[in-house]
Specification:
single chain; alpha/beta; Rossmann fold; SIR2/SIRT2 'Small Domain'; 2 domains; 9 helices; 32% helix; 18% strand; elongated
Amino acid sequence: MELKKLVVLTGAGISAESGLKTFRDSGGLWEGHRVEDVATPEGWKKNPGLVLQFYNERRQQLKSAEPNQAHKILAKLEEYFSVTVVTQNVDDLHERGGSSEVIHLHGELLKCRSEKNDQLVYSRTEDIHPGDYCDEGHQLRPHIVWFGEAVPLLQEAALKFAEADICIIVGTSLQVYPAAGLIQYLGSACPIYYIDPYPYLSPEIKKRGNIQLIPLPAQDGMKEVWHKLLVETADNNH
């Protein structure tokens, strides 16, 4: 029997429970920096050294973080569903938690690429310095989708949402576009489990009838979804 297709949209809230701070604080700063200085093409042109330092620090911070129960439950769901995780996170906690199909909308912290040729992508676990070049002799930059840049994997993610039988949203406030707009690709009958301590009812969410709000943090919320998908479903089938 073919497994049902489960698509999951995740954001910073799931990583926060592993001790990774969300980049943006309540004052709008990213770890003490203006977003424009460290997360835009303009910031890169103005001061590449600062941008490299910012992401080097994030990369080092990631080394001390471990996948939490929410990541592990998502991976365990692969025993029962065909699971695709579409994440706005740039860390590798989903992969380390055991998920086998992860689409990183906003890039990956443990990769870098040529600043001139975005097809030249390399794995990178250590710091990137000014003067570190790609095979074509151009400076390496973080493999991150900055504000103002296109989201190259958006179409691939949209196809996964269009094919989905079930959707889980966890750790994202559904306020960052274009990622938040992905739910508009879901079929009208596709049930959504939306995990968030303070769920934001976006215009796309309000239009949908088949949605269960689970006002809990990521780990507790994923335990509840596990129960709903597997335990309650099994009970209803008997």
